[in-house]
Amino acid sequence: MRINWGLAVGIAGLGTLMGVYGGAAQAASTTQVSTQALETLHPAMQQQLSYGSRGHWVMTLQADLALLGYKQVGPMDGSFGPKTESGVKAFQTANHLPVTGVANPVTWQDILSGFHLVPSYNGATTPTVNSTVTGSNGVKLTKVPNTAKTIDGRPVLDTYHMIATAYGPSLKDNYPYGPVDAFGQPLQAGMIAVDPSVIPLKSTVYVQGYQDASLPSGGFLGHAMDTGGAIQGHRIDIFMNAGAQTVSNFGVQPVTVYVLGK
Question: What is the predicted pLDDT for the residue at 103?
């Protein structure tokens, strides 16, 4: 079971990330917020991605554009090539932005507005997300439209953009219960800790968008079997059966979580 006093290792700015992914969009819907102000808060808006860029932020960009209907973006492989550039240009054209093919802060702002995370660049809200849930901390959380119908033969019930951290089998990560899940079963690869008010325990999930050589490339099928005091709202914790340094190296990453049916 996950330690209940927060993260096993301190990560600067996590409270800010949680606030942005949870409540900031609600406040932004009634108050005009500058791109510069949002850039200091939202991690995606601090990324300037262009042809040749690589990494998990490129994969996040690809996943977001695909969810918004820009299929020309190509596979979610973390490599910004001609297909990704084409998708960015198509998005910029459709949203009346300068067509540069570069995912700059203004482009990110309009992408994120499609998920009701921030207001759009011109102050309007893009009506893309059609439902919310309320997490255990009282913050309303947005669901992403289910553009994927099935994964591994299972229907997609809900889709969320979330912030992921990782934990390992050490006593430090699991004090005082030891390396067991919320049901007392030994922790195994593929298990994640969740806020049960957002993702029900024992749910089958598919997690993608991270970049870590110790986890399956492209994503993994897993189960929501654990909880933790710091795991609230748009937060998950991924169990890694690995040493402390490998777990720490995961850091804080944006992911997309698909909740699957039977």
Answer: 94
